[in-house]
Amino acid sequence: MDQTGVTAQTAKTPWGLAAPVAPACSLADVMSEQLARQLDEENNTFPELTDPAADLFLSAEASDTTSDLMLAQMLQMQYDREFDDQLRREEKKFNGDSKVSISFENYRMVHPYEDSDSSEDEVDWQDTRDDPYRAEKPHTTPRKGFVGKGKNITTKHDEETCGRKNTARMDNFAPEVHVGDGLGMDLKLSNQVFNSLKQHCYSEQRRSARLHEKKEHSTTEQAVDPRTRLLMYKMVNAGVLENINGCISTGKESVVFHADGGSLKEQPVPEEVVLKVFKTTLNEFKNRDRYIKDDYRFKDRFSKLNPRKVIRLWAEKEMHNLGRMKKAGISCPDVVLLKKHVLVMSFIGRDQVPAPKLKDVTLGDQDMTTAYQQVLHMMQQLYQTCNLVHADLSEYNMLWHEGKVWLIDVSQSVEPTHPHGLEFLFRDCRNVSTFFQKQGVAEVMNVYELFNAVTGLNISVSGDEAEFMAEIVALEKRNEDHVQRRGKKTFPVAAENDDPPLKPDEDD
Q1: Is 344 in a helix, a strand, or coil?
Q2: CA-based angle 502:412:420, to the nearest 5?
Q3: What is the pLDDT, as a whole number, of residue 478?
Q4: Cβ atoms of residues 171 and 183 within 8 Å
Q5: pLDDT beyond 90 at 488
Q6: Residues known to be catalytic
């Protein structure tokens, strides 16, 4: 068999049919001139296309790269673009989300027109120096007050000029006032609208400042304002207090803190004391002045005080009342120190645990009867010896400690010559009588008998509360007329000189 035919056959393999092999050419066919001319004609049938633009680009690139100046300018342009990109990032980081922002456009190296091939994801840069949509600045009026001549005179009161000026002045409003963005708009605000916006902005600033000041300078529940905190720090630094442990009670008029006593030159300080911080806000106890302005001890001073200084007078009032009660032998806290609206007193309790209120303690029949007799005796002493009416006596203001009843919260206590003193006493008698009757004390007197037992007035009891109150109001009226006519009190009063003296504050 011919060798050519053998090689031309398809070879079989285990992986399938193999690709057909091209037939072999002899050396004579390869050397044939006729075959060469045939191949040459086939190649000339499809001539090669040339790109003149590519040649031009290659020639231009070759010419550019041969100039050192052009290479330096291209490198400088690339460096400037990188510098501007860094500048954009710094500006974005510095401004953040603030409404008022700064611009670094004066430090740019590349003009925005030359930097048109920057990527789309970069920060958009607005060159306001050549911005065609930028709002025009209002023209300033010369000193003479007008511009132009003849019929074309424009004064400073021109409506359009004033409107543009008012629009420009809105940029001077506070940052929290959102005035909008009038870019590219010829806005004109009349004087009436601008003045209304200006007044509203000023009112909002004052309101926010007032709310902030009220929050910072008012004593709220379980918290103190910076001024009160400074007073407490001064007491610790002076050695009057060792440390302040925390809040133990809150009420409508004050916040009470427990502290460890230190030392004082004038008098010994108990191991455990309380700081009664009177609240400097009148929101919860708005009728304080009812107990002060009609009290003859503080009437002249009250008329000259502002509402904030009334709180100091309130603390001073409790100090004087506690001094009277202590001299009469009534169980009450001892006064240690008074500083503005902070009153330091002895602690009624033990080991940082305050004594329970009479409404919370569970007593037997004998102890409850003893407590009633003690309260009756203290009310008589308070009225007849101390010349005071508690004016807020109830089971909430009486503590049970060491088998005795202790009276607290006497800042609202007034003298019987107060225009409403007997009414306050009648209310105290009702509270005491009602509480002990609920506790099952057999010998409790009713409110009318208790009132007569405390005052010794022996007002006739007919069972009608309206008639009884009418008799009390008539007594108050006669006493008030007598005091105003004579200029002195009807009932004997303990000497005020015996009360703890008050030294004026250094910063008052």
Answers
A1: strand
A2: 120
A3: 82
A4: no
A5: no
A6: 392
